[in-house]
Write a structure and sequence with these properties.
Elements: E1 2-7, H1 14-26, E2 29-35, H2 46-56, E3 63-68, H3 72-78, E4 83-88, H4 91-107, E5 112-117, H5 127-135, H6 146-156
Parallel strand pairs: 1-2, 1-4, 2-3, 4-5
The protein binds adenosine-5'-diphosphate (ADP).
Length: 170
């Protein structure tokens, strides 16, 4: 069975990569599907994200990467995928993901959503956390693949750490 792993991946983190690696051992093929969402203003444009994901999944021969827009179920049908792969970190993920899975079932009964629990070391990790650290010039090497960390440092043009004191205590 082919599974699609849809998401924003802005940028891909080691938590995403862990789900992809583990998913690639369970499924015949995984398609990492970057959702083009015109409502979000991204850190990296979609074509750049595709290059980043391709570079860090090179060691996984049954993983391919592409972008899509529209409904995930329609995209899954187009790719003849039998499953949607998603990751779960915390309880708040569960609520959102379960609602999405149920909604997708109403649109396409044959498509199963398969959840993989995060590996404990990545349970706190999200693309937003990475962006928050990066905008203040913090170190992100332990959070994202090497090629993505390089892109982030280039993008913010900063060398960590940069601390500014805004108040003076007398
Ligand atoms: P979306 O905007 O669709 O939530 P994301 O790129 O944020 O896209 O996440 C894609 C999927 O990866 C989601 O199912 C999310 O729960 C999962 N995910 C994100 N970070 C992690 C992590 N650290 N560990 C496990 N799963 C994760």
């Amino acid at each position: 069975m082919i599974a699609i792993y849809p998401g924003s991946f802005d940028p891909i983190t080691l938590g995403h990569l862990d789900i992809i690696e583990r998913g690639s051992r369970l499924f015949e093929g995984i398609i990492v599907a970057v959702l083009c969402n015109p409502q979000k203003s991204p850190l990296f444009p979609v074509p750049h994200r595709l290059v980043q994901i391709e570079a860090c999944t090179q060691h996984l021969p049954n993983v391919t990467v592409e972008s899509f827009s529209g409904l995930t179920v329609d995209y899954a049908r187009l790719r003849k995928a039998g499953a949607i792969l998603r990751g779960l970190r915390v309880l708040s993920d569960f609520e959102k993901e379960l609602q999405m899975a149920h909604t997708n079932t109403t649109l396409c009964k044959e498509l199963e959503t398969i959840f993989l629990a995060t590996s404990t070391e990545y349970s706190f990790l999200s693309s937003s956390v990475v962006k928050e650290i990066a905008q203040f010039g913090g170190v992100v090497d332990h959070l994202v693949p090497v090629n993505v960390a390089q892109d982030i440092y280039r993008c913010f043009n900063k060398t960590p750490p940069a601390v500014t004191l805004n108040t003076t205590i007398k």
